[in-house]
Structures are given as C-alpha cells and as structure tokens.
C-alpha cells in the first residue's frame, strides 16, 4: 500500500504549487472576512474613506480595537491607507474587494 498521500497523486507541478499558494491566500482572506467587526468596517468604508476615529465612532468601538482590525485588513490588502498630513485615511483596497463584499451581502439578503 501507499505510505503517504503524495504517492497517491504524484508530485505537484510548479503550476499546481502556484495554484495551491493562491488558494491558501484566498482562504486567509475568507478567514478575515469571517469576522463581523471586519465586515462592519468594510460596510462603513464602502460609503467613503475614513479615519480610525470616524470608523470607531460609527461602530461604537474603541480606536484601539479598530486599529487592530485595520492592521489585519491591510496585511491582506483588503483595505488601504492614505496619509494626508498627520491623518491616515482608510478605504477599501480595490474594486475586487468591493465586489466580493457586495456579492456576499447580496447572497445573504437574497436567501
């Protein structure tokens, strides 16, 4: 019998490895979007770019909690930051993220 699963399917090609890495990165994004606070942040950022203080006030949360969540979202390129003087403004990173968010909300509302 086979001693490991690689013997069952054979070695991965470079393309398969790249696809596996892409799917792993996609899974990380879905994990991040599995948090209701992060989704609430995206909901308010969908309307306009905002500073941490504005997001915190809109969600009734502390600036520290919002900053922590924004750090995760920035790492995954779900949101981006823009500096203007001493202020930092956050917005949804690009149209792909907005589309993913909108489709998910639409899917739930449709059900």
Automatic annotation (TrEMBL):
Keywords: DNA-binding, Transcription, Transcription regulation. Signal peptide: none annotated. PROSITE patterns: HTH_ARSR_2. Transmembrane segments: none annotated. GO terms for molecular function: DNA binding; DNA-binding transcription factor activity. Residues 18-111 form the HTH arsR-type domain. The keyword Transcription applies. InterPro entries: ArsR-like_HTH (IPR011991), HTH_ArsR_DNA-bd_dom (IPR001845), Metal_resp_trans_reg (IPR051011), WH-like_DNA-bd_sf (IPR036388), WH_DNA-bd_sf (IPR036390). This is Transcription regulator (ArsR family). The lineage of its organism: Archaea, Methanobacteriati, Methanobacteriota, Stenosarchaea group, Methanomicrobia.
């Amino acid at each position: 019998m086979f001693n490991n699963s690689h013997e069952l399917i054979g070695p991965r090609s470079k393309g398969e490895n790249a696809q596996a890495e892409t799917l792993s990165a996609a899974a990380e994004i879905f994990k991040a979007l599995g948090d209701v606070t992060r989704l609430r942040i995206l909901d308010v950022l969908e309307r306009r770019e905002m500073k941490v203080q504005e997001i915190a006030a809109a969600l009734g949360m502390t600036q520290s909690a919002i900053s922590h969540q924004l750090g995760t979202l920035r790492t995954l390129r779900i949101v981006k930051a823009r500096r203007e003087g001493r202020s930092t403004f956050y917005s949804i990173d690009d149209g792909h993220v907005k589309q993913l968010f909108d489709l998910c909300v639409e899917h739930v509302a449709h059900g």
